[in-house]
Design a protein that fits this description.
The complex is a heterodimer of chains A (751) and B (446).
Chain A (H helix, E strand, L loop, with lengths): L1 H25 L3 E7 L16 E5 L2 E6 L10 E12 L1 E7 L28 H5 L2 E6 L7 E9 L6 E11 L2 H4 L29 H14 L3 H7 L5 E5 L2 H14 L3 E5 L2 H6 L1 H7 L3 E3 L4 H10 L2 E3 L7 H7 L7 H6 L2 H6 L17 E5 L8 E7 L2 E5 L6 E10 L5 E10 L2 E6 L9 E11 L1 E6 L20 H9 L2 E6 L7 E9 L9 E11 L6 H31 L14 H7 L5 E5 L2 H13 L5 E5 L7 H7 L3 E4 L3 E3 L5 E3 H7 L4 E4 L9 H10 L4 H8 L1 H6 L17 E4 L10 E6 L2 E5 L5
Parallel strand pairs in A: 1-4, 5-6, 8-9, 9-10, 10-11, 11-12, 16-19, 20-21, 23-24, 24-25, 25-26, 26-29
Antiparallel strand pairs in A: 1-2, 2-3, 4-13, 6-7, 7-8, 13-14, 14-15, 16-17, 17-18, 19-30, 21-22, 22-23, 27-28, 30-31, 31-32
Chain B lengths: L1 H18 L6 E9 L7 E9 L2 E6 L9 E12 L1 E6 L27 H9 L1 E6 L7 E8 L6 H4 E11 L8 H27 L12 H7 L5 E5 L4 H12 L3 E5 L7 H7 L3 E3 L4 E6 L2 E6 H7 L4 E3 L11 H10 L4 H6 L3 H6 L17 E4 L10 E6 L2 E5 L4 H9 L44
Parallel strand pairs in B: 1-4, 5-6, 8-9, 9-10, 10-11, 11-14
Antiparallel strand pairs in B: 1-2, 2-3, 4-15, 6-7, 7-8, 12-13, 15-16, 16-17
Classes of the chains: A alpha/beta (751), B alpha/beta (446).
């Protein structure tokens, strides 16, 4: 019997334990917000935060995530990337509820701003500016208009402080209530009918001051008594220097906890010393240079944006730089202190409400943008980005043709570069990237056979190629964004070359140019002279054919006689574009003699655009190639033996002689390794610019796709590679690869 | 001398007649269906009434031979409707003075008002008479019945509570409006505290100043408060006022207040909804309709429904109840929202609202199901006395005479189209309306 009892108790305990456990786990959702905490605002001015994320539990900041720490199990992660994490911004005045119908009485300390607050309204416009907490002001234009409140503009529990600061307005606005004063209706049961219930408003400052002294000293309860006993702050709105002095005197005389609300920073600056010695905190309703001086000299002020002003813009106007912590404190923790809510909001200390602003770009810079706003750990605002719009702030840009830009913004729309330059603004609705290394054009492999089957001669190489996503991905990671696909045939007329991107959506090539050149092999072996002669004859006939057609067209256009059309020759047709220079003739030549044949063709056919593919024997012909203006597409590493059998750097020799050089992988299966090739070229003496051009601008020119790729310029495709350093520098690696405006590769250790 | 004696004799005879127990009126109603609102429906039951009060209800009751028998075997009998909040029969709905708890609406009710005749026609047997919403603290409300030509005979409950309206009056904002209400309540606080001390010391309480007495009663919880919230933002203030001043009572809600439903549910305060039971709001350029009664029911809030003064359909109790049913409120809850619950909320739940022994015989006799569009109010019985009979409704008859097509059945107030209304034997909630958007039910909802 007893045993059974014990067992029952044990069972009950077990059940309780089991039931208790999931409840405890479900109690709070854990969220980890990752981002840049280098500007984290903490209550302690001197402290800084060495963490990569905030751990948020039950809507509060519960801890920090150190760099080496792993995310707690079961936690949701909001990875803001390189966005700065700031506490939710605080506006020391943001809303004056229900101000349309203000009371006609000058003194209404019993009015509460909270009564006019609509917690069910949508404050999206305010949240979009990063403001999560505001001081609700009672109406502004009366001597003593009421008691304010501190509220959040999102979240469940919006009221932080139902009674905060009695508002006192000295000066013109306070003396001229907005409505016409009406005598009270006589039938008032609670007030003595002999004395008017509503005293007439004071018209002069003397009367106002007398009235204020009397009501503060004479108060027996309510807000005035609380203010008199320093249990409630008094916000004194002042504009001119004499009003400021008056406010200081009043605060001193009555002995109230006053907060000055300075409408005019220039006026405040004139009485800086008095403000400073009074020790009173203040709220500035105006930014700018004077405000900056006042804030710096006193160190006790905060900012408040009156309707229509962005609080961040105000902070920026008083900041010494885009990352000025002091300026950021005036709209966060300092403001929270002045409003008495620093135990809940204003900083990123543990235990504070998880009200966060995630910002792209330095918070006080002109193109900083608020990405996400959280209140109590819940996302309440997210920036709307326009699809296809990307803005990149780049520290250094090598355009690919030798030009260098520093600190520019590149705006990409629908895959193309829309604009770029130092003064270009990042559109607020764009996806943002900050590239701190060197941005170069996407690399072009000028000699690739990737996926090209030994195919039909007549078809463009792209049609004979099947994209292999694995190979393409490997290439993309190295920064290769385009490939010149050359036909792999070894016959004399190999076929059309194509240019494709290394992105192959849905298994199909993203084609830049279907016919980018026509490849003819001069290296077929056999009788070299006969082969060259054959090509020459062929070109002769083509030229003749083209001329006959041209003559026909001219005669036809003149319209005098009805000319006889030349016979259409299907074998000649493909060559017409070559003869007119519309299609590049790519001649594969290696030996010096073959190059001689090429030069002969060049001198005979001036209109034909020629390019030399291969050219291992071009060492001795570099001067002539330069003279003839024939670009060279090299494959693999550019080292050859000179006639004396010593190793020589072909690329260097060609570049030095003024030959335009493009470099390719020569179709090796592993593909182009641009950074290795660049490093090798630079180390061997080729200038970094020329080396980069050999992988970007030159191939684009040679294969007639310079209107799409090869350079970084407005109007061209946004194919960009973000490198950790200039190409050729030691330790240079790929950080980001952008193809057609999309970030297709992001280095994992990029932080 | 002779005349004097005669007078005395006559008086004595009259007294004897009045005191004679044999003259107690007894009434038995045999009804086809009885919706008691206090338990299951009774088929072919009987309601026994003596001196205006229900003595018994049930099947196969023994009817005393002296009782007058009303044979209503083809009729449905249910408690007369209760309209919890209206000012239709006042001489004017609002008072210019903002704080007037020392006034009583008894002085403003016009017994000859056409609205009272219309209440009878609609089968409303109990009416909560409140001042309009343009007030800070209203005149004292009363609960009346639509009987007679003299207001004192109409009273069911003379002092039924005070309305506090949070709708800012013209020329004022919410801050000033609320501050004035607080000031008025604060003014009587010392009196309340003093009375409390005296009560604890078991001393006699001094007489109250009649001007402040209603507010003292309000703060002492002896009289209920009815706080009008036109918008959701007023709900937190209303609850704060109730908490600060220890008020007991009910919220009267504007249609937007459904946004504050969680707050109301948590505070466990009953509410009066309507007349508009749908809230339409434009979100991203599209109208979003919220079905209010459904929202409040799902949140577990106890609610009564009210009718509009002029809007077609919404002016009639059955239509409001049927709308609630369409919004997913169970039929019995919806019916009680204009009978038992409504009576409870205006403080007359012990007297009317259900058919049970001891309750006043305030009944409505219907020709069919209460939620059917074809149903007529055939007879309204208040305190056992028939005060409306459709066959004797001259104005109705007049209206029907003037109708060009002598319809088989028609009603004075134009009815909404039948398709708007669920048929009684169908479950209206089963008809989903895809274009209506409602807030998702909260976890923990049934």
């Amino acid at each position: 019997m007893r045993v059974r009892k014990i067992a029952l108790v044990a069972l009950a305990a077990l059940v309780a334990a089991l039931a208790g456990e999931p409840a405890a786990r479900a109690e709070g959702k854990t969220l980890v917000v990752k981002g840049d905490l280098s500007l984290a605002i903490l209550a302690d001015r001197t402290a800084s935060l060495d963490a990569v994320g905030l751990i948020i539990r039950d809507g509060r900041i519960a801890g920090y995530l150190a760099a080496e720490e792993t995310v707690p199990e079961g936690a949701e992660v909001l990875d803001a990337g390189d966005a700065f994490i700031l506490p939710g911004l605080i506006d020391a005045i943001a809303l004056t509820p229900d101000a349309r119908t203000d009371a006609p009485k000058p003194l209404t300390p019993d009015h509460r701003a909270l009564d006019g607050f609509n917690p069910y309204a949508d404050y999206a416009p305010l949240l979009a500016t990063g403001v999560t907490t505001v001081w609700l002001s009672p109406t502004r234009n009366r001597l003593l208009s009421g008691v304010g409140a501190v509220v959040k503009v999102a979240g469940d529990d919006r009221v932080l402080s139902p009674r905060e600061s009695l508002r006192l307005t000295l000066g013109g606005e306070g003396l001229n209530p907005p409505a016409v004063w009406e005598p009270p209706i006589l039938l008032k049961p609670y007030e003595d009918p002999i004395v008017p219930a509503v005293p007439p408003p004071p018209a002069s400052r003397a009367a106002a001051m007398a009235m204020l002294r009397e009501v503060f000293h004479g108060a027996t309860d309510g807000p005035l008594k609380d203010a008199h006993d320093r249990r409630l702050r008094v916000r004194i709105h002042v504009r001119s220097t004499d009003e400021i002095r008056l406010a200081l005197r009043l605060a001193d005389e009555i002995g109230i906890d006053a907060v000055l609300e300075l409408a005019d920073a220039a006026e405040a600056k004139k009485v800086l010393k008095e403000i400073s010695t009074s020790g009173l905190p203040f709220v500035l309703e105006e930014g700018g240079h004077d405000a900056a001086t006042v804030l710096r000299e006193t160190g006790r002020g905060v900012l408040a944006a009156v309707t229509g002003t962005r609080i961040l813009a105000m902070a920026a106007s008083v900041a010494s730089g885009p990352r000025d912590r002091a300026a950021l404190r005036t709209i966060t923790i300092d403001a929270a202190r002045i409003l008495g809510v620093d135990a809940r909001v204003g900083s990123l200390d543990i235990g504070k409400d998880a009200d966060l602003v995630l910002m792209d770009g330095a918070p006080l810079s002109s193109d900083a943008s608020i990405r996400t706003v959280l209140v109590n750990g819940e996302v309440v605002h997210e920036r709307k980005t326009t699809p296809g719009l990307l803005a990149i702030r780049a520290t250094r840009v090598l355009r690919g043709d030798g030009a260098v830009d520093e600190d520019v913004v590149i705006v990409v729309k629908d895959g193309c570069i829309l604009e770029m330059g130092r003064n270009v603004r990042m559109p607020p609705d764009a996806e943002r990237r900050v590239f701190c290394g060197t941005v170069v054009p996407g690399f072009v492999d000028a000699w690739s056979h990737a996926g090209v089957a030994p195919g039909d001669l007549s078809m463009p190489a792209v049609d004979a190629a099947t994209p292999d996503e694995k190979t393409l991905e490997r290439l993309r990671k190295r920064g290769v964004t385009s490939l010149v696909l050359l036909p792999s045939g070894t016959g004399s007329s190999a076929g059309l070359a194509s240019v494709v991107k290394t992105t192959a959506p849905a298994g199909r090539h993203d084609i830049v140019s279907r016919s980018a050149g026509y490849l003819v092999n001069l290296t077929t072996g056999g009788d070299r002279a006969a082969h060259a002669l054959y090509i020459r004859d062929l070109l002769d006939r083509v030229v003749g054919y083209v001329e006959a057609w041209n003559a026909y067209e001219i005669e036809k256009a003149a319209g005098k006689t009805k000319p006889k059309a030349p016979r259409r020759d299907s074998r000649m047709e493909p060559w017409r574009a070559i003869a007119t220079g519309d299609l590049t003739l790519i001649l594969r030549a290696e030996r010096a003699e073959e190059i001689g044949d090429l030069l002969a063709i060049r001198s005979r056919f001036k209109d034909v655009r020629l390019a030399l593919l291969g050219g291992t024997g071009a060492l001795t012909r570099s001067g002539k190639l330069a003279g003839a203006g024939v670009p060279v597409v090299l494959g693999g590493l550019p080292f050859v033996d000179d006639p004396e059998g010593r190793p020589a750097n072909l690329a260097l020799t060609l570049v030095r002689n003024g030959v335009r050089v493009a470099m390719g992988s020569k179709g090796i299966p592993s593909g182009l390794e641009p950074l290795a090739l660049l490093a090798e070229a630079v180390r061997s003496g080729v200038s970094p610019q020329a080396a980069l051009a050999a992988l970007t601008a030159v191939p684009a020119d040679v294969f007639a796709v310079a209107d799409r790729i090869g350079r970084i310029a407005p109007g061209l495709d946004a194919d960009l590679v973000h490198l950790s350093a200039d190409p050729g520098e030691p330790g240079c690696r790929v950080l980001h690869v952008v193809v057609g405006g999309r970030v297709v590769h992001e280095s994992e250790d990029d932080r | 001398m002779r005349t004097g004696t005669r007078r005395v004799l006559l008086g004595l005879a009259l007294l004897a007649v009045l005191a004679a127990p044999s003259l107690a009126t007894e009434l038995a109603i045999h009804a086809g269906r009885i919706l008691t609102m206090d338990g299951p429906e009774i088929e072919n039951g009987t309601i026994l009434i003596r001196d205006g009060k229900i003595v018994a209800v049930g099947k196969d009751l023994e009817v005393p031979p002296s009782a007058i028998v009303l044979d209503m075997k083809d009729r449905v009998v249910m408690p007369a409707w209760v309209e919890p909040h209206t000012w239709r029969m006042l001489d004017r709905s609002n008072e210019r003075m903002p704080i007037v708890p020392y006034l009583s609406l008894v002085d403003a009710i016009d017994p000859g008002h056409l609205a009272i005749e219309q209440f009878r026609r609609d089968g409303i047997g109990t009416i909560g008479a409140f001042q309009g919403n343009s007030t800070q603290i209203s005149a004292r409300a009363s609960v009346i019945k639509p009987v007679g030509i003299e207001v004192t005979r109409m009273l069911v409950r003379r002092d039924a509570g005070l309305k506090i309206s949070l709708a800012p009056m013209r020329g004022s904002n919410r801050m000033a409006h609320t501050a004035a209400i607080r000031m008025a309540l604060d003014a009587v606080r010392p009196t309340v505290e003093k009375r409390d001390e005296l009560r604890k010391a078991k001393k006699d309480l001094p007489d109250l100043d009649p001007r402040t007495a209603p507010l003292v009663a309000l703060l002492e919880g002896r009289e209920p408060a009815f706080i009008m919230c036109p918008a959701a933002m007023d709900v937190p203030r209303a609850l704060e006022l109730m908490k600060t001043y220890g008020l007991k009572g009910t919220l009267i809600l504007g249609s937007e207040c459904h946004k504050a439903v969680d707050l109301i549910a948590k505070a466990k305060v009953p509410v009066i909804l309507g007349p508009a039971l749908e809230h339409v709001e434009t979100v991203d350029g599209k109208p979003v309709v919220t079905e209010i009664a459904g929202v409040f029911h799902r949140a577990g809030v106890r609610f009564a429904l009210s009718t509009a003064s002029s809007t077609l359909g919404m002016s009639e109790p059955w239509f409001q109840v049927a709308t609630a049913v369409r919004q997913g409120v169970p039929r019995d809850v919806a019916l009680k929202a204009m009978t038992a619950t409504a009576a409870d909320i205006i403080g007359v739940g012990k007297r009317v609202g259900t058919i049970a022994a001891g309750k006043a015989a305030t009944l409505v006799v219907l020709t069919g199901d209460p939620l059917s569009v074809k149903t007529w109010v055939d007879r309204l019985i208040v305190d056992g006395e028939t005060i409306y009979e459709r066959s004797k409704d001259e104005r109705l008859a007049d209206l029907l005479r003037k109708t060009p097509k002598p319809a088989k059945k028609a009603k004075p107030a134009p009815k909404p189209k039948p398709e708007k209304k669920p048929k009684p034997d169908e479950k209206p909630a089963d008809k989903p309306k895809p274009e209506k958007v409602e807030p998702a039910p909260k976890p923990g909802d049934k």
